[in-house]
């Protein structure tokens, strides 16, 4: 099973960050949570949210007002959106199929 993140590497402050995770080798409809996390030098690993195989979504409380996760089962993809980004959202973003599979991560930098 392989997961691949894709999206812009540079986003301006106040704009929306959108990242897509493409899954191959397994369907995102199998019983599993499909998650997004990020890693920053200051905070370490931070769990952002998840979408389940049935479409339920869960978000970390501190970011719930700014993030959303959706899925496209026809493309076997799930997507993270972060609204109103700031430089504090600069991080390496990872997608994963909890807890067995992970993407390689993608660096996102938020410019002022």
Structure description:
- This protein has 112 residues and is an all-beta fold.
- The chain contains no helices and eleven strands.
- The strands form two sheets. Strands 2, 4, 5, 6, 9, 10 and 11 form a seven-stranded mixed sheet that branches.
- The radius of gyration is 13 Å and the shape is globular.
- The termini are far apart.
- The model has no long low-confidence stretch (mean pLDDT 96).
SSE blueprint:
Elements: E1 2-6, E2 10-12, E3 17-24, E4 33-40, E5 44-52, E6 57-59, E7 67-72, E8 77-82, E9 91-97, E10 101-102, E11 106-111
Parallel strand pairs: 2-11
Antiparallel strand pairs: 1-3, 3-8, 4-5, 4-9, 5-6, 7-8, 9-10, 9-11
Question: What distinguishing features does this structure have?
Answer:
single chain; 112 residues; mainly beta; globular
One letter per element, helices H and strands E, the order comes to EEEEEEEEEEE
- What general form does the structure show? globular
In whole angstroms, the N-to-C terminal distance is 37 Å
The largest sheet is: 7 strands, mixed
User: Using DSSP, what is the number of strands?
Assistant: 11
């Amino acid at each position: 099973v392989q997961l691949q993140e894709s999206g812009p590497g540079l986003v301006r402050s106040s704009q929306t960050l959108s990242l897509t995770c493409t899954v191959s080798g397994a369907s995102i409809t199998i019983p599993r949570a499909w998650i997004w996390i990020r890693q920053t030098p200051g905070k370490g690993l931070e769990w952002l949210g998840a979408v389940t195989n049935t479409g339920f979504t869960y978000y970390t409380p501190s970011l719930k007002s700014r993030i959303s996760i959706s899925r496209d089962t026809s493309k076997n993809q799930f997507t993270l959106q972060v609204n109103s980004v700031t430089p504090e959202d600069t991080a390496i973003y990872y997608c994963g199929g909890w807890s067995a599979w992970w993407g390689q991560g993608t660096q996102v930098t938020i410019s002022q």
